[in-house]
């Protein structure tokens, strides 16, 4: 494994945790060159899931794209990376467990993200909703604030 700090390959695993419910292996690593620590995740490659976009296009589900959107909404909110990874795992499992479905709408994904973010950080949920729901007026924001506070 390459160290993200010094780019050397001499790293060692100092802690390993299996999550049987999500089939993810979390490894805490330490670089023997610079001494810094970092976390890696290993997961089984899943069945391809297609996302039906609002404009009618179909894209392959991209976990990293989902993560980037969530990170933009929660930037500087102090939410630990582990919590965001856990949330994405739960969303991905929910989507993959839909019986006989190989596609899902982007609205359904957005609603799942809002549901999870609302539990963790209401302001982050509002910021995500502002982009996801494409607010046009201040009234849209006020209505979402009311919905989130319920």
How would you describe what is shown here?
The structure is a single chain. With 150 residues, the chain is an alpha+beta fold. It folds into 2 domains: 44 residues; 104 residues. 44% of the residues lie in helices and 22% in strands. It contains 5 helices and 6 strands. The strands form 2 sheets. Strands 1-2-3 form a 3-stranded antiparallel sheet, with no helix packed on it. The protein is globular and about 55 Å long. The chain starts with 10 loop residues before the first strand and ends with a helix. The model has no long low-confidence stretch (mean pLDDT 87).
Q: Beta-strand percentage?
A: 15-25%
Helix content: 40-55%
Overall geometry comes to globular
Instruction: Output mean pLDDT.
Output: 87
- The oligomeric state is single chain
Order the strands across the largest sheet as they lie in space: 1-2-3
Main beta sheet: 3 strands, antiparallel
Indicate the structural class.
alpha+beta
Poorly predicted segments: none
Total beta strand runs: 6
Number of domains: 2
Secondary structure tally, helices: 5
Using only C-alpha atoms, the radius of gyration works out to: 18 Å
Summary keywords:
single chain, 150 residues, alpha+beta, 2 domains, three-stranded antiparallel sheet, three-stranded mixed sheet, 6 strands, 22% strand
Outline the secondary-structure elements.
Layout: E1 11-19, E2 24-31, E3 37-43, E4 50-52, E5 58-60, H1 63-74, H2 81-96, E6 103-105, H3 106-120, H4 122-132, H5 138-149
Parallel strand pairs: 4-6
Antiparallel strand pairs: 1-2, 2-3, 4-5
